[in-house]
Automatic annotation (TrEMBL):
<feature type="compositionally biased region" description="Low complexity">
    <location>
        <begin position="456"/>
        <end position="469"/>
    </location>
</feature>
<dbReference type="InterPro" id="IPR004312">
    <property type="entry name" value="ATHILA_Orf1_C"/>
</dbReference>
<dbReference type="Pfam" id="PF03078">
    <property type="entry name" value="ATHILA"/>
</dbReference>
<feature type="compositionally biased region" description="Basic and acidic residues">
    <location>
        <begin position="439"/>
        <end position="448"/>
    </location>
</feature>
<feature type="domain" description="Arabidopsis retrotransposon Orf1 C-terminal">
    <location>
        <begin position="4"/>
        <end position="386"/>
    </location>
</feature>
<feature type="region of interest" description="Disordered">
    <location>
        <begin position="401"/>
        <end position="469"/>
    </location>
</feature>
<protein>
    <recommendedName>
        <fullName>Arabidopsis retrotransposon Orf1 C-terminal domain-containing protein</fullName>
    </recommendedName>
</protein>
<feature type="compositionally biased region" description="Basic and acidic residues">
    <location>
        <begin position="409"/>
        <end position="423"/>
    </location>
</feature>
Amino acid sequence: MAALKPVKVLPTQIACQFTLSRLGILDDVATVFETLGLGRLWRVEHRVYPKLVREFIATCRLTYNNPTKPTAGEGTLTFFLNKVHYSKTLFEICDMYGFTKGESVEFPKLSYAVADDFWGTIASGSYKSREAKITHIRNPVVRYVAKVIGSTLYFKPVIAAVPLSELAMLFYGVKHLLPRYADLPAPDVNIVVILCDVLVKMKNTAPTSAGRSILAGTALTPLFLGCKLDLSTVKYEAGQASMDVDNLVNTGYLKTNSLVYTFLGRENFSYFCSLPNTHITSLVSLSNLEFIPDEQYLVPNPFGGVPRRRMFVDAPPADEHVVADDEIYEDYDDLVPREHAQPYLLLPEDQARYRLSPPPAGDDISRQMEWMIASTRKNNSMMHKMWRAIAKIRPCVCTRGGGADDADRENRSKTTEDRHAERLVPAAGQSGASTSQRSPEHTPDTRLGRSRRQPGEQQSSSESPTRHR
C-alpha cells in the first residue's frame, strides 16, 4: 500500500457514445463489444475514488480451485476495501459489469499464418507484434474498437501497437465477416478473467511505470458499487476521460474537427474521407472490413497537403503496453545519384515521366480527383529527385581542398601555428637555463627558418627583422 501512495489515480479513457453517434459507427462498435462479451466496461461513466482504488490494487488476488487448469467458474477474487476483506467469484463480478459468463480464461492464440493474414485484411504490411501500429488499421470501426480495448481492458497510457492478445480479440469480434475462418468455433471467453489478471499485475507495474499512474479509476467504480459500499463519505474525483473528437484529432484518428477520417492505404499513402458514411464503414461485408473505398468517397487533405507515403522504422525493444509513436519518413521511389554521377544532372535527359497530362474535361469529380493525385505524385517525385541530387553535389576543388595547392596551404597553416607557439615561448633573458639550453632544431624560430640573436649580437644583412606582436 505504501508503494502506491505516490501513484496517481486517473480516470479510465472510455468510448464517447456521442462522438461515435456523430461518426456513424456507434451501432457497429457496440455490436463488436457485444460479440466479445465486454458488457458495459467500454462505456462506464462513474466518479473516481483514489483511496479505494489504491487499496484494491494493493490487496487484490486472483485464485482458482485448480490452478493447472483454470476456469472462470472456479475463480475467486479477494481484496480489501475500507480495511474490510471481500471475496467475490468471477461470475459475481460478471454481473457487476455485464460480462458474458464464459468459462475460458483467454482467447485462443492465433497462429502466425492466421495473424498475418488477418492483419493483411484490416491493415497494411505483415504482422509483427511490436511493429503492428494501430494507425495501420483502415476501417474506423475496427480502429476505434482497438483503441477502446487497449484503454479500458489493458489500461495502456499510450495506445500505439496491437499485440497478439488484442489482435485475437479483434479477430473473433469480426470473424463472421471472414469466410476463410467460418469453421472456427466462437470462443467461450470470460472477459472478467482478463480484467482481473491485469488489475492483479498492476500493483507491481504501476509504481515503476513511466507515468507512475493507475488508469483504472473509472473502471473499478462498478466493483465498489457491487460490493454495496457507502460511497457518499468517500472522497472522489469527478473528472472523466473519453475518446471524443478532440482526443481523436490529437491521436491522428481524425484530421480536423470537421470529422475527416485519415487512414493509411495498402500502398502506404494517407487518404481522407468524411464521416459519417455507413455505406463504407458499417461492418456488413468483407469489403467494408478491408476498407478500401472508391475514389468517389475520398476527400482532399483538409490542410492542403498532398498524399505522402509512410515508412516506419524499427523501434528498439520496449514494454508491450508502452510503445513509442512511430516516426514517419518520406519514401522516395527514385534512387540517390551515385557518387560518380555528374551532380548537375538533377533529372534524367528523358523527362517524359514527369510531364503532367492535361486536366480531364467535364465535371466528373472522381476523374478530377484522380488527375490531381497523379499530378501531385509526379511533382513530388520530381522535386524529391532534384533535392536529393542537389544534396549529393560534392564541393569543388577550391573549397574542399583537393587541388595542387594543398601542400602550400598546409605549410601556411603550420606557419600560423608556429607563430602562436612563438608567443608562448618566453624571452631569452627571462626563461632561465631551460630556455637557453633548448636545442636549436626544436625552437620555433628554427622551424620558421629564422635564427635567434643572442644579446649583444649585430643583426646580419641577410636577416630580416622579426616583428613580435
